[in-house]
TrEMBL record:
Domain GCN5-related N-acetyltransferase Rv2170-like, first and last residues per copy: 206-267
GO terms for MF: acyltransferase activity, transferring groups other than amino-acyl groups
Family matches, as InterPro entries: Acyl-CoA_N-acyltransferase, Acyl_CoA_acyltransferase, GCN5-like_dom
Protein name: FR47 domain-containing protein
Length: 308
């Protein structure tokens, strides 16, 4: 088979329209909705986003859709089908996809990959069978998805930033803040990639009003998820993380973007997010309610492809 590449703004908008035929506002489209918009706006020049899918008659959503990120960071995002997997189609698609991405795998230190459990299991099988000399996969890490509904976005836009004595919300100063954020981010690929994200994508920082130093922050990725919420240990327990998050959410909403985030399944922040009235946790039954069949698309998983 041959994967279709959607290699122009017009084609990418058409792909998004086809994916949205599976239902409005479904979680598996969040990444494509933001990434395609960023690509069309050329918001993030540090990487090139390439979009592929399995064949389609151009009137129905393709079974599988893929994003390949190439540049100072490399990653693969695979949208699982909402109506159940076709494992033979998935296997052949992954073989072709990895072959297309071989040059990145061979030249990069590691490549991040994200999808659902069925897809990642098949991905590991394909890698070990067809490409055993190229890469090894690290164990998959499950994450929970939280997002804002339209009502929550409206509520967040009307919520005033809380006042915390001695601190204030601010924009990131890339020259001043990038190194501090990079050094405190366990998942940072490099200072270069962290700097690029801070320079081109929405982010927020909370500063000590007396020194101007960054005490807490949150940033976002080219895929659109809010990430790396962090408070320097000496400043924890003051509500700075919640302030940084709300500050970033307001930026997303003002840009017409839907805030969403992934939290590691064993992270204590999952419980806090469940209690927060501004977040909704993705649940299979929500999408079943709008006519989609449960297909094992939650939780989502990250895995890292590393050169042997």
């Amino acid at each position: 088979m041959a994967l279709i590449e959607w290699d122009s703004s017009e084609k990418q908008l058409r792909l998004l329209a086809l994916l949205q035929k599976d239902g409005p506002g479904i979680s598996i489209n969040f990444v494509f909705e933001t990434a395609i918009r960023y690509s069309i706006e050329q918001r993030y020049p540090a990487t090139r986003m390439r979009y592929f899918s399995t064949t389609t008659d151009l009137n129905t959503a393709p079974t599988y859709a893929f994003i390949l990120e190439e540049g100072i960071a490399s990653s693969i995002h695979i949208r699982p089908p909402p109506h159940g997997h076709d494992l033979d189609l998935l296997r052949s698609s992954l073989v072709e996809l990895i072959e297309k991405f071989r040059h990145r795998i061979e030249n990069d230190e590691n490549v991040l990959m994200m999808s659902d459990a069925h897809t990642l299991n098949m991905f590991h099988e394909v890698v070990s069978t067809y490409f055993p000399s190229i890469v090894a996969c690290s164990p998959s890490s499950p994450v929970e998805l939280f997002f804002m509904t339209d009502e929550q976005m409206e509520a967040a836009s009307k919520t005033e930033l809380p006042s915390i004595d001695g601190f204030h919300a601010d924009s990131v100063d890339v020259d001043r803040d990038a190194t501090t954020i990079h050094e405190n981010w366990v998942h940072s690929a490099s200072l270069q990639s962290t700097t690029a994200r801070l320079r081109h994508l929405p982010s927020s920082v909370i500063r000590d009003s007396s020194t101007g130093e960054a005490c807490a922050w949150m940033m976002s990725s080219v895929y659109g998820q809010c990430s790396n919420l962090f408070t320097i240990p000496a400043f924890r327990g003051k509500g700075l993380a919640r302030l940084a998050e709300l500050h970033l959410m307001k930026q997303f909403i003002s840009l017409g973007l839907r805030p969403f985030k992934y939290i590691d399944e064993d992270n204590g922040e999952v419980a806090a997010a469940r209690r927060n009235v501004l977040w909704t946790q993705w649940e299979r039954r929500r999408e079943a309610d709008i006519g989609l069949v449960e297909s094992g698309t939650a939780p989502l998983f990250y895995t890292m492809i590393k050169k042997k």
